């Protein structure tokens, strides 16, 4: 499957604008590419209690799974503090484990600074020796 890294990065950056992050002021967007070509976006959604908060990557995965998709090719992630210049943003450990639930080690993770400036990694690189049942 051909992956358009720039399109996914742009969609993640756009999804970041929907973030609800009044506590951390750190907005994150994600764009998840299913193997069937459909793209699911997500943003982080915070709660004052923090533990009920949800990351952008998990929002996208949960949207996809709730609509019947369970096979994925890639995800782009973009994030930044509201007062800072965007930098490369990677999935947190919890999100890496959730991605691991549905994706193989060669699943592509795009850490996007801009739609043309990004780092590409495989899930197996970012979550070595992962836990799977």
Describe this structure in words.
- The protein is an alpha+beta fold.
- It has a single domain, classed as 3-Layer(aba) Sandwich (Cytidine Deaminase, domain 2), CATH 3.40.140.10.
- The chain is built from four helices and six strands; from the N terminus they run H-E-E-H-E-E-H-E-E-H.
- Strands 1, 2, 3, 4, 5 and 6 form a six-stranded mixed β-sheet that branches.
- Strand 5 (108-112) and strand 6 form a beta hairpin.
- The radius of gyration is 14 Å and the shape is globular.
- The protein starts with a helix and ends in a 7-residue tail after the last helix.
- The mean pLDDT is 96.
Give the gist of this structure.
The chain is an alpha+beta fold and about 130 residues long. About 30% of the residues lie in helices and about 25% in strands.
DSSP strand content: 25-35%
Task: Write down the secondary-structure element order.
Answer: HEEHEEHEEH
CATH architecture: 3-Layer(aba) Sandwich
The oligomeric state of the chains shown is: single chain
Q: Ends: how far apart?
A: 27 Å
The CATH superfamily is known as: Cytidine Deaminase, domain 2
DSSP summary, beta strand count: 6
Would you tell me the overall average pLDDT?
96
What is the makeup of the main sheet?
6 strands, mixed
Give the domain tally: 1
Rg (CA only) = 14 Å
Low-confidence stretches: none
**CATH hierarchy class name:** Alpha Beta
The count of helical stretches stands at 4
Structural class: alpha+beta
At the fold tier of CATH, the topology name is: Cytidine Deaminase, domain 2
Helix content: 25-40%
Q: Judging from the principal axes of the Cα atoms, what is the shape?
A: globular
